[in-house]
TrEMBL record:
Coiled-coil ranges (or none): none
PROSITE patterns: GST_NTER
Signal peptide (from-to): none
Any GO MF annotation of the entry: transferase activity
Protein name: Glutathione S-transferase
The entry's keywords: Transferase
Occurrences of domain GST N-terminal (ranges): 3-83
Length: 209
């Protein structure tokens, strides 16, 4: 059975975090690189992979997985020897799933609403409550440190630190030392540096094309 693992990737995008994760996992993978500025992610060939036209997506054998959170969960479970996902039965499995889901269902929607000055639904109906409650809940967990699950580094930290890095750069997040320290801790890992170097080289190639 073909178990080739491919990451559909655009440099300096949400798929950059998955690139970092693959490096952390020491996973054998190939990259299918697209130039977002040229709209390659909106061409028919890629829409057949992800009709949303969005990265990241992965193909593993016959399986296609889209949506960052699903991809992080899938990959971290696929390479258990890297210990980036607490297994079933581990008391940290629940918190691990909680903070993965929190990312997609609370954090990103709240950030986008705040950024676009969208009027959120009433607190009881809004899926993230309100921005301050969402953000304070997250920061309380992060402050326990050094990682989101405490002492144990996991795939969660690749997801969250990547996102904090981008959002901080675009001024979408309140500036807090606890976030800066967390991002630095994760971004200084050898796998993060290797992925950032690959991404930078790909971006240079695309700019020259
Ligand atoms: N819900 C998706 C969002 C992915 C997403 O928005 N990706 C951006 C890159 S950071 C994208 O592909 N944008 C290009 C486009 O929509 O044309 C996920 O969590 O994976």
């Amino acid at each position: 059975m073909n178990q080739q693992l491919t990451l559909y990737h655009c440099p300096y995008s949400r798929s950059s975090g998955v690139l970092h994760l693959l490096e952390e996992l020491h996973a054998p993978y190939e990259l299918h690189v697209m130039n977002m500025k040229k709209g390659e992610n909106r061409e028919a060939a890629y829409l057949a992979v992800n009709p949303m036209g969005k990265v990241p997506a992965i193909r593993h054998g016959e399986a296609i997985v889209t949506e960052q959170v699903a991809i992080y969960l899938y990959l971290a479970d696929l390479f258990p020897q890297a210990h980036l996902a607490p297994p079933l039965g581990d008391p940290l499995r629940g918190p691990y799933l909680r903070w993965m889901a929190f990312y997609g269902s609370c954090f990103e929607p709240a950030i986008v609403d705040q950024w676009m000055k969208n009027k959120p639904a009433d607190k009881a109906a809004c899926h993230y409550g309100d921005f301050d409650t969402m953000f304070n809940t997250l920061i309380e967990q992060l402050s326990k440190g050094p990682y989101l699950l405490g002492e144990q580094f996991s795939a969660l930290d690749v997801l969250w630190a990547t996102s904090f890095g981008w959002m901080g750069m675009f001024g979408l997040l309140p500036k807090l030392q606890v976030i800066d320290d967390y991002v630095a801790r994760v971004k200084n890992r050898p796998a993060a540096i290797a992925a950032a170097d690959k991404d930078a080289a790909l971006a240079v190639e695309q700019a020259a094309a």
